[in-house]
Design a protein that fits this description.
Layout (H helix, E strand, L loop, with lengths): L8 H12 L4 H9 L10 H4 L5 E2 H10 L14 E7 L3 E6 L9 H6 L7 E4 L8 H11 L3 E4 L5 H10 L4 E5 H13 L12 E5 L5 H12 L2 E3 L1 E4 L3 E5 L7 E3 L3 E6 L13 E7 L9 E7 L1 E4 L5 E4 L4 E2 L4 E3 L2 E3 L1 H9 L4 E11 L2 E10 L5 H15 L5 E4 L13 E3 L4
Parallel strand pairs: 1-14, 4-5, 4-6, 6-7, 7-8, 20-23, 21-22
Antiparallel strand pairs: 2-3, 9-10, 10-11, 11-16, 12-13, 13-14, 14-17, 15-16, 18-19, 20-21
Length: 408
């Protein structure tokens, strides 16, 4: 992996883009529309002058100029694989990529290496997940079992027969493997050699679920933030919640409407520029939402908190975006709160947000004050009123966390 310090990332970006503009007309056009050249990018603010390219626009560009939409900045002979993600989006991987788009960092930090037997259950068909993880495992010197998706009973048996020490899977599929093994009479953790699991993220109390799995199964769980377009964007570090940003990714947290960077702690869209050669996506809007928890000395995001949802789920209230995940977190943080829903409306020319809640037991003034404080911490807003719901107006379990009544 190419380690890049904050001091030289912008210089490296300028050099990469000056060369890439000669091959990638889409990149050259992006700079042209902003009245810029790569030489003008001297700060994070300069980079933010370039427009955000959302995923659906990349789909349109590839349809108009197949197969790569004018973004390929390498000779076609340098392409090792072409992945096809939903959209469809064609994503090239070059022969020079030896660490699975940065994923080797996750395994090496998780002490997975020579002597480890890794069961990789992610798909090897068209999409990049399985093969990128395969490359990363090999780069760390471990042995990979390219299982792919499906066949839980057979894969569970492989865990025992081959002495698997690490499993790569979605959290739900990992739990299914555990269920299959225990239903066959295997007593875990005594019956297996698994000590590490790289799990896909979930909304809800996912960190709590991971801790419970770790305690019950005697393992360490790992996670990463990644997309098909970039591979690894962020990885976990002990003692820090969320994800530390890979040094070859320049991340900004941006307003989903105007694309401008937001202050530390304010949630917005994760916008990524890569320093990888050949596929120079710049200011690419991932559609994922998080808040920055640390900024690097060059002005880019150094760490993000846990993902809060997708851009399309956001509701703008008094110029601040509120996300369903924030209401869910409010419930998860309070043992007394059973359900909650944010209800947005308009009174005159003012946006109003009310919090409808169901307490597991009787509410108290102290609980209500605590909710006000927690709501403000999570959203940077004060709710206008707290509506206590009784049994006759109970929220169903599948009720949305956030509703907007301003538009009909």
């Amino acid at each position: 992996m190419h380690e890049t310090t904050p001091r030289d990332r912008l210089a490296r970006l300028r050099a990469l883009h000056e060369a890439a503009c000669l091959r990638a007309p889409a990149l050259q056009a992006l700079y042209g529309r902003a009245g810029m050249t790569p030489a003008d990018v001297r700060s994070a603010a300069d980079l933010a002058r370039l427009a955000v390219t959302p995923k659906d626009k990349l789909v349109d560009m590839q349809r108009a100029a197949p197969p790569f939409g004018g973004w390929l900045a390498a000779d076609p002979s340098e392409i090792r694989r072409v992945f096809v993600s939903p959209g469809p989006i064609h994503e090239p991987q070059l022969h020079g990529d030896v660490d699975g788009h940065g994923f080797a960092r996750v395994f090496s930090d998780g002490a997975v290496g020579p002597g480890d037997m890794v069961l990789n259950t992610w798909s090897y068909h068209l999409v990049p997940a399985g093969l990128l993880l395969d490359d990363a495992i090999a780069a760390c010197g471990a042995t990979v079992i390219p299982a792919g998706t499906g066949g839980a009973e057979a894969q569970a048996q492989m865990v025992i027969d081959l002495g698997v020490s690490c499993i790569c899977a979605s959290t739900a599929y990992f739990e299914n493997l555990v269920h299959v093994l225990e239903s066959k009479g295997h007593v875990l953790p005594a019956a297996w050699r698994v000590r590490t699991a790289l799990l896909g993220g979930e909304l809800g109390d996912w960190l709590g679920k991971r801790r419970r799995l770790e305690a019950r199964l005697g393992i360490r769980t790992l996670s990463a933030y990644a997309t098909a377009d970039f591979g690894l964007i962020g990885f976990e570090e002990p003692g820090h919640e969320g994800y530390t940003i890979h040094p070859d990714r320049l991340v900004q947290i941006c307003d989903p409407v105007n694309g401008q960077p937001l202050p530390l702690g304010m949630p917005g869209e994760i916008v990524v520029t890569t320093l990888a050669r050949g596929w120079p996506l710049v200011r690419f809007g991932t559609g994922d939402v998080a808040a920055a928890s640390a900024i690097s000395e060059d002005g880019f995001v150094a760490r993000i908190g846990m993902l809060q949802g997708r851009v399309g789920q956001a509701v703008k209230v008094r110029e601040i975006f509120v996300y369903p995940r924030q209401i869910e977190d409010l419930v998860l943080q309070s043992s007394a709160l059973h359900r909650a829903q944010g209800v947005v409306s308009r009174q005159g020319h003012r946006d109003v947000i009310d919090l409808h809640v169901m307490f597991g037991s009787a509410g108290t003034p102290e609980l209500e004050a605590d909710l006000r404080d927690r709501f403000k911490q999570l959203t940077r807003l004060r709710f206008d009123s707290l509506v206590l719901l009784g049994a006759d107006a109970a929220l169903p379990d599948d009720a949305p966390w956030l509703v907007d009544h301003r538009h009909g």
